[in-house]
UniProtKB/TrEMBL annotation:
<feature type="binding site">
    <location>
        <position position="181"/>
    </location>
    <ligand>
        <name>L-citrulline</name>
    </ligand>
</feature>
<dbReference type="InterPro" id="IPR024074">
    <property type="entry name" value="AS_cat/multimer_dom_body"/>
</dbReference>
<feature type="binding site">
    <location>
        <begin position="12"/>
        <end position="20"/>
    </location>
    <ligand>
        <name>ATP</name>
    </ligand>
</feature>
<dbReference type="InterPro" id="IPR023434">
    <property type="entry name" value="Arginosuc_synth_type_1_subfam"/>
</dbReference>
<keyword id="KW-0067">ATP-binding</keyword>
<dbReference type="Pfam" id="PF00764">
    <property type="entry name" value="Arginosuc_synth"/>
</dbReference>
<feature type="binding site">
    <location>
        <position position="41"/>
    </location>
    <ligand>
        <name>ATP</name>
    </ligand>
</feature>
<feature type="binding site">
    <location>
        <position position="124"/>
    </location>
    <ligand>
        <name>L-aspartate</name>
    </ligand>
</feature>
<feature type="binding site">
    <location>
        <position position="132"/>
    </location>
    <ligand>
        <name>L-citrulline</name>
    </ligand>
</feature>
<keyword id="KW-0547">Nucleotide-binding</keyword>
<feature type="binding site">
    <location>
        <position position="92"/>
    </location>
    <ligand>
        <name>L-citrulline</name>
    </ligand>
</feature>
<dbReference type="GO" id="GO:0005737">
    <property type="term" value="C:cytoplasm"/>
</dbReference>
<protein>
    <recommendedName>
        <fullName>Argininosuccinate synthase</fullName>
        <ecNumber>6.3.4.5</ecNumber>
    </recommendedName>
</protein>
<dbReference type="Pfam" id="PF20979">
    <property type="entry name" value="Arginosuc_syn_C"/>
</dbReference>
<dbReference type="InterPro" id="IPR048267">
    <property type="entry name" value="Arginosuc_syn_N"/>
</dbReference>
<feature type="binding site">
    <location>
        <position position="279"/>
    </location>
    <ligand>
        <name>L-citrulline</name>
    </ligand>
</feature>
<comment type="subunit">
    <text>Homotetramer.</text>
</comment>
Length: 412
């Protein structure tokens, strides 16, 4: 598609290194008369939003939208995927991937309200987020022009970006020496770059962590927490009903204080390379663990085991930016059907990075103590197991007998 004239731009603005230099770059590249409007999505990151508005304007933007998307982020993105048990490559709780389709949706809404002809984002050409953003944008407007400066400008590295910022007197919240690439929201905080690019090196957790402490620095005493679920969603902590934002914040606080939810992972990016990062997801780790524990009690065997298979594909779709795909939506319908009776209370012990099970109850529990007991019971006849084993093993018996005949006849 040929590039259209750029007159009015809506830019995804975080105030970090990349987006700080993009505003003056747009003016230099497309003309001083181009209007640049910024949008910052509040998905739970710690920011001084009034300062951010002033900074964006000082850098050349006409104004900055600050959109509070925190509750929608949790209820419409995090919780549905958590109910699915989605973990990319079995580990990563998808903190960055959840936020992108939501931010993209709101950007299109604002772009249409403002009459913007172009959307600009600061994702690099090596990362996953460029795919997530652009697929999200095109879901709601497949014809809008998208500019990704990292794919077309002369800046080739973060060092170059620092040079450009200094040359244009752009204030930055970081220095060259503390230049970890970070993404923060209510669900997680990621750290990439610098010494983390060498997977042979142990991360310096005490220097990196911001949402909590390392397991070594956690208290020597256990912390107990109970979480109540209704239809697969967490609704209360230690008996106190909490709205989604307060609930995640509370568990972030408890998990962070006890060294919970720290992940050092080399993951396979969608664009084909491996990348190494350290993720902090203290509250999310606790919620996922508690939810899985409750499902053990409430889901029948076939449903639980099939759902575990499905979770892998669901996570892959989300990681790859396909949140709005028909397949993800169809999988969600299955997931939500399975969650109707995932209601109950899970008690956990938090201790130096470990989440230890401490008891689970549910009014919909499928656990039958009389059936499971090693003591005498009146409802299970152990002699019935013999016939079951013979029938279950009948294909094996038929195969072994056939193989004996084939050997006798010299066929094998």
């Amino acid at each position: 598609m040929a590039e259209k004239e750029v007159k009015k731009v809506l830019m995804a603005y975080s105030g970090g290194l990349d987006t700080s230099v993009i505003i003056p770059w747009i003016k230099e590249t497309y003309g001083d008369d181009v209007e640049v409007i910024g949008m910052t999505a509040n998905v739970g990151q710690e920011e001084d939003y009034e300062y951010l508005k002033k900074k964006a304007v000082n850098c050349g933007a006409s104004k900055l939208y600050v959109e509070d998307l925190r509750e929608e982020f949790i209820t419409d993105y995090i919780y549905p995927a958590m109910r699915a048990g989605a973990k990319y490559e079995g580990k990563y709780l998808l903190g960055t991937a959840y936020a992108r389709p939501l931010i993209a949706k709101r950007m299109i809404e604002i772009a249409h309200e403002e009459g913007c002809d172009t959307i600009v984002h600061g994702c690099t050409g090596k990362g996953n987020d460029q795919v997530r953003f652009e697929l999200g944008l095109r879901e709601f407007d497949p014809t809008i022009q998208i500019i990704a400066p990292w794919r077309i400008w002369d800046i080739q590295s973060r060092e170059d970006a620092f040079d450009y910022a200094e040359a244009h007197n752009v204030p930055l919240p970081i220095t060259r020496e503390t230049n970890y690439s970070k993404d923060e929201n209510l669900w997680h905080l990621s750290h990439e770059g610098l010494d983390l690019e060498d997977p042979s090196q142990q991360p310096k957790l005490d220097d990196i962590l911001e949402l909590g402490v390392s397991p070594q620095q956690a208290p020597d005493e256990s912390t107990y927490v109970t979480i109540d679920f209704e239809a697969g969603n967490p609704v209360a902590v230690d008996g106190e009903k909490l709205d989604p934002i307060a609930l995640v914040e509370k568990l972030n606080e408890l998990g962070g204080a006890n060294g919970i939810g720290i992940l050092d992972i080399v993951e396979n990016r969608l664009v084909g390379m491996k990348s190494r990062g350290v993720y902090e997801t203290p509250g999310g780790h606790i919620i996922y663990h508690a939810h899985e524990k409750l499902e053990e009690l409430c889901l029948d065997r076939d449903t639980l085991q099939f759902k575990q298979v499905l979770a892998h594909k669901y996570a892959e779709l989300v990681y790859n930016g396909l949140w709005n795909s028909p397949l993800r939506k169809a999988l969600q319908q299955f997931v939500d059907e399975t969650q109707k009776h995932v209601t109950g209370q899970v008690k956990l012990e938090l201790y130096k990075g470990n989440v230890i099970d401490a008891g689970t109850t549910s009014p919909y529990s499928l656990y039958n103590e009389e059936l499971a007991t090693f003591d005498e019971d009146d409802i299970y006849n152990q002699n019935d197991a013999e016939g079951f084993i013979k029938l279950f093993g009948l294909p094996q018996t038929a195969r072994v007998l056939a193989e004996k005949e084939w050997k006798k006849d010299g066929k094998i």
